Amino acid sequence: MKKLGCLIAVILLAGAALFAGSRMGSATVEEDTAFIIPAGSSLTSVAQKLEDEGLITSSDGFLLRSKIFGGSDPIQAGEFMLSAGMSQSEILDAFQNGDVIRRFVTIPEGLPSILVYERLMAEELLTGEIEVPEEGSILPDTYDFERGESRASVIARMQKAMDDYLAEAWEKRTDKAVVKTPEEALILASIVEKETAQADERPMVAGALSNRVRIGMMLGADATTIYPITKGKPLGRRIRVSELRSTNPYNTRAVAGLPPGPITNPGRESIAAVLDPAETKALYYVADGTGGHVFSETLEEHNRNAAKWRALRRERGEM
Length: 319
What we know:
Elements: H1 2-24, E1 33-37, H2 43-52, H3 59-69, E2 78-82, H4 88-97, E3 103-106, H5 113-121, E4 142-145, H6 151-170, H7 182-195, H8 202-215, H9 222-230, H10 241-245, H11 268-275, E5 284-287, E6 293-296, H12 299-315
Helix pairs in contact: 1-3, 2-3, 6-11, 7-8, 7-11, 8-11
């Protein structure tokens, strides 16, 4: 008898579920349609919005059936894709338990904050105004967002990601690192990011620059000289002699030590590189014509390498 009672209960529950689905009625979704539920929406306002957009015939009927036959889970805010032919019960279930549509924005390694700002302001599905974020505060990565989300909240997630990663990476620094604070690590990492585009070269560039910092030698990075002029955007011309001689604190060809702040948003690999730089005696490096660099310990050797690079550029018609 006990087993029979359980069987009857299961049958009744299944029947009730089918009854609820049928009683909710059909909808009028004729093609796949994106539907947005703003944050803080009530079931009543959602039902009215469905009717206004022609996806159901009666908001009152949908609301009544939802309260009687629908589940007790709250509806979610966000954007949902309603498929052609969905029933009203399926729509309600999607709002309560379905996946919100996510979209993505990618911040490449080495993208300066002015361009992060422009990228987010150009994203039409985001809302609200923002200021240009502090340089070096954004962790390059791909971030998801919802339609209608504020740009400020996206920036906050990007900055939290940088804070979290920097704190984690700082704890793993080795005794080869010359930076004394996480802030100095960001500054040096931003220079490494701009000095090489090859991931496998970052520890060597970090090693050479760390050696220069260690002995008080000028870093000599053109990207730092350009930064106050363009805020990280391409200069679009060659650096002027007057700019190379300028004593502004970002000009590492005229002022020793680290500049006062980052010159871009460095990625994880560049940050890791300055916290565990390659063990090298190199102080110099110059482009080798293949996208990488050739490193040297002495100025004489560096001058020979630089002469080879200039000759190659002349052969290519770049000078």
